[in-house]
Amino acid sequence: xxxxxxxxxxxxxxxxxxxxxxxxxxxxxxxxxxxxxxxxxxxxxxxxxxxxxxxxxxxxxxxxxxxxxxxxxxxxxxxxxxxxxxxxxxxxxxxxxxxxxxxxxxxxxxxxxxxxxxxxxxxxxxxxxxxxxxxxxxxxxxxxxxxxxxxxxx
Length: 154
Prior knowledge:
The protein is α+β, with helices and mostly antiparallel strands. 14% of the residues lie in helices and 34% in strands. The chain contains three helices and nine strands; from the N terminus they run ααβββββββαββ. It is elongated.
């Protein structure tokens, strides 16, 4: 695997340190860990869906956690009580942990398990304060400034 050095970017960008660190982290992650297989789908302008193939896992075997923008899906299969004798074992029932780094303002709105697919729905909700707004030229001098709902004394 090739190593990518992002050090030159740090000299020319300001305030994007976190993004560059996430790119480096993603480049270092082991891509050979392909279990379980998954899809990431864009279902709308600000809506996403993650589908994981978790055949054989029941809802109580799965754990979904969101902490500081990191979505972690963990599967732990309980050991079978009876002793089973397999002639061929092709269905993987091993435990797993799959992590997804979510962008700012992306939250989980629901999760469902149907027909062996774990579906996690996500939505990006940008706060009003961060949405683009039009600034009137010359309007700031004529109108009083409003800070936290209180008028500024002149």
